[in-house]
Amino acid sequence: QVQLVESGGGLVQAGDSLRLSCVASGRTYSLNAMGWFRQAPGKERESVARISWSGGSIYYADSVRDRFTISRDITRNTVYLEMNNLRTEDTAVYYCAARTGVTATYAYWGQGTQVTVSS
Question: Are 96 and 39 contacting, i.e. CB atoms less than 8 angstroms apart?
Fold first, then answer.
């Protein structure tokens, strides 16, 4: 089992920046990737950014490319999402997720952190 705890959400204005953090605990030796997903009211959950635990593979959704940066610190079992130039459409609950072993499924999820961007 892997436990995930997110932090760093909040209320900001358009154009501001925020950094989300997600700390993993438990069977962290089995991690092979972590990612950030978000879900806005009335919308489906979408993948925002993902990173392999080796750091060699990174994915960004087109809507956040060039504004958001995902990174990880394997010594702290932590993944970060640096969000710059935030837009009102970035408002959502942001979830951290983890993939372990050789699976392709993100089986472990945090509780979510709210990000609200006002105009």
Answer: no
In tens digits, what is the pLDDT along the chain, a chain of 119 residues? Answer: 999 999 999 999 999 999 999 999 999 999 999 999 999 999 999 999 999 988 889 999 999 999 999 999 999 999 999 999 999 999 999 999 999 988 889 999 999 999 999 99
CA 104, 109, 112, 118: dihedral to nearest 10 degrees? 0
Contact partners, residue 67, CB within 8 Å, separation at least 6: 83, 84, 85, 86
In angstroms, the CA 72 to CA 116 distance is 24
